[in-house]
Design a protein that fits this description.
4 helices; elongated
């Protein structure tokens, strides 16, 4: 469980840092040619980082979802998990796909 807490804390710190950087970018004075050139370089760097960070964030999500498939839950526990997933925005199809559930002809699992 310590690892999940570390992931959660890291994500919260990353979000705070990104919000802080966004705030700094709004108030950043650009008052010289060197500042313009630095701004261009930084903008390009943030664009490149966005692509790289997106890849890593998606991979982390995929890793965690793959871990979910390894967990064996009792029926009542599984219902609790599915309810929570619905609460945070997962669709029924995403839940079915994530847990490799079979759907009967009526659309129920």
């Amino acid at each position: 469980m310590a690892c999940m807490s570390e992931l959660s804390d890291g994500l919260a710190r990353l979000r705070e840092l990104i919000i802080h950087l966004e705030d700094i970018s709004i108030h950043q004075p650009i008052d010289s040619v060197s500042a313009v050139l630095e701004t261009i370089d930084l903008a390009i760097s943030f664009d490149m980082y966005e692509v790289e960070a997106s890849h890593y964030l998606l991979q982390i999500s995929a890793n965690l979802k793959e871990q979910l498939k390894q967990v064996e839950l009792a029926s009542s526990e599984f219902e609790q998990v599915k309810n929570r997933m619905r609460e945070v925005g997962f669709t029924e199809q995403e839940i079915v796909d994530l847990f490799d559930l079979e759907v009967d002809n009526n659309g129920a699992e």
